[in-house]
Amino acid sequence: MTQEKKTSRSLKRTAATLLLTLTFMTSGAAAFAADPADPTTGADAVASASTVGNTVPTLLFSDVASGFWAEKHIYKLASEGIILGDNGKFRPGDSVTQQEAITLALRFMNVTDQLTADAKAPDKLEVSAYFKPYIALAVKEKLINPDEEAAATAAGEAWGTKKASREWVAKILVRALGREDEAKSAAGKGTTFADNATISAAARGYVNVAVSLELTNGVDGNRFDPLGTVTRAQIATFLSRGQAYVNQSYDNVYEGVVTSIGNGKMTLYTNGASRSFTLDSRTAYFTSASETKAAQSDVVLYSKAMVIDKVGTAAYVEITDPTPQLETVEGTLLSSLSGSRLLLLVNGEPVTFTYDNATVFYDQNGQTIKPDSLSNDSTIELKRETFTADKKPVIVQVKSGIVNKSSKGTVESVDTSSKTITVKEESGNEDKLVLNSTVKILYQGQVMELADLKPGSVVTYTIKDNSLISLEVTQSVERTISGSLISLGNGKLLTYKKSDGSYGTPLPISQNVQVVVDGIAAPSLSDLIADDNGGDQVQLTLNANGEVTKIEVLGRQAEKLSEVSVVSYDKTRKLLTVVDTDNNPYVLELDGKTAVEYNSTAPTLSGLEALLNTDRKITLTHIGKRVLSVSVIYQYEGNFVGFDSASKKLKLTDSAGKTRELAFTNASLPVYIYGQASATLSSLKAGDPITAVLSSNQDVVQSINVKTTKQFEIKAVDTTNSRITAVSDNLTQTFYVNQATLLNANGAVIKVTDLKAGDFINVLFSGSTAANVQQVKLTYGAVTQADASSVTLKTFDGSVTTIPAAGAVKVVRDSGTSTSLTALTTSDHVVVKKAADGSTLVTVLTPLERTYWRYDSVSKEVYVKRSTLSDTNIRFSVGANPYIHQGDTTLTVQSLQENDNIVLYFDGDKLVEIVKQ
């Protein structure tokens, strides 16, 4: 595609996900005619126009990406009905033919109401049947001269299907704008393009005018490329820019001032009246000053805007002037008069202003108030609109006034930087309280920090002479505070130090307090480090009663020493001497709280002590002299690089990118891969994640465990022996999980008793041992929307959820497999889950339409009537809680009646949903 070179308006290109752009159809308007012979529309438009009476149909332009250089112009002209899509695509790079360009130009001129079915195109010009009335009208409107066009058409060439050139489109566009005389005046003037000599003499004036109006520029290399073809994206841009020079008064285009926006609605004051439009996710927002998309939040109240309407919905909104159309009047309030009137003293003269229910009143803190809250002698700033003769006040702001009050309200927000608290009173008014150095926030007799005050807390406060003089929290909500841990008071009372070094008020610890320490499964209070100088940096969650319900360790002052060598260990004094790789010595102390790890499923301090012999390599963490944890290095983890059988060396790369070379002595080094009975070193592939297990002397590799991940459906759980029987790839397998970390779908630690038959799990094996087991979340629902980046479902619990694509995508249905979510339709019922490799797996449930017969409560089976005499598929087991419903109404299987038409949905052989028709 030949692209317009960038101008000062900066046609920005960005790579983005596919965007659903929309085009609406209106019956009876030629500009939106859904004729299958018209290549400016398509099959989608025909189908939409014939389905539902007043439904607003849309075309999905799946080939116009967000950030596409012509996106704004495509949106605009598609919304106006000047150019449409084709089978769900816009085809931005397709070339435009001459008969198509003429059709678009006539729509642009808004003269298609003059089309007559029996109009005849000039015999000299060969055009397709559909376009003949358009060509006849183009001749009448002097867009084309038949003799001129015939002379430029080669023998055997059809004029209508000839691809439109850039200089020819410039001529048509200039004529459509009524600038023919300007083009004639500029005909003798050369252009500044490097290929000026190749521009036809008859076209040069049109090119000059088109360039001067910035409708078109050029292509790379300062060329105009006069005979180059014009794409659909380019002609949409030319026509869209051309609208700045004409007023065609399209029936669905409104220009005016935005008087309200929000809650899915927008009101525009246009042509002396207010007009409301619906806003939805398909509404496109742009500004006149930019080619890139804007957001609804960019639309400023009382700014000027253009709205393109489709059956009451704003398809396209363009901010034409962001400046609010308001003027400001300042004065002193003399009195609030009856009849919604204010009497102000303005420049020494009394002036009356009449307001209405739409006028918004603010106090000096910017919070909304009621009109009767205004005090005489207050300085008032009144903003009134300038776009009507009434000049109605829209904002009344108190600039200064005296406030004395005691009140109660709920905290809406807290701004710690400005020390400002927004409180909504019980009456509905809002106060913005500024905390000064003399006011302390009190809660249960204790001073509370501003950062600890959370929205939702109930407070009482007093203001005197506009200043806050007291603030007390009468009802708190869950809140968090941060600091360093000083003591835990036998698990009853927690003491912490604030960031400024002062001590916080001791806090009671809840009996069910949750402790979170990164890297420790199911930690308890005993895993926390409380110390006056080196305690854990923690975030404390407090409930409404001020009890600590959660302690999360954010950081530790501990120092980590990796791969140090033991010099000596004094078991009596528990003194450990080590040297690091630079031979720097450390003398450290172990105690009963030191966490230990070595090649054992139940490591103990005494067991560790037996291993702390000279030259033993270990990794440890410590605070000062106190050792927090010791890990004997008995294995290395990383990605397999390769091996040398001659020198018996194995290479792997660890997570830090360091390549290790490890020795092995056994030519038949054991390699363990889950599911492979006799793996060898040759079974390994570069990049495989492995664990190299060392000998007791740490000098050679004695075995290799390969990490693999598989997904299973649990069939049985032996909780006594921590053993699971599960199915994967139609194979039933049994494995132990006693050494595995067990997690639920959200990543929280669980017990083996929390696993049950029917659960899907992702299992990480280290060799043949399960190291990590995580439950897989299954989301069942009906597809309401799908694009390349996400799928939206109405789930079995009635909620609507959007699931983003994570990594690779696989959509599986009976007819085959796809790798894009766009393969889904709104008729699909699906289950979404994460595959073992982290990708998104969507399985389309298999539907079966049948007539209901009866339910056997003993066998828990649903019986349906035979579809044919040979049909034996008539009974289905009702498993664990299938979703049975009619529309949004949940049913029981007992409520189904004989001869009800039902659709059964299956996930594999499991019945998961029954829909009553």
Automatic annotation (TrEMBL):
<feature type="signal peptide">
    <location>
        <begin position="1"/>
        <end position="33"/>
    </location>
</feature>
<dbReference type="InterPro" id="IPR001119">
    <property type="entry name" value="SLH_dom"/>
</dbReference>
<feature type="domain" description="SLH">
    <location>
        <begin position="57"/>
        <end position="119"/>
    </location>
</feature>
<protein>
    <submittedName>
        <fullName>S-layer protein</fullName>
    </submittedName>
</protein>
<dbReference type="Pfam" id="PF00395">
    <property type="entry name" value="SLH"/>
</dbReference>
<keyword id="KW-0732">Signal</keyword>
<feature type="domain" description="SLH">
    <location>
        <begin position="190"/>
        <end position="253"/>
    </location>
</feature>
<dbReference type="InterPro" id="IPR051465">
    <property type="entry name" value="Cell_Envelope_Struct_Comp"/>
</dbReference>
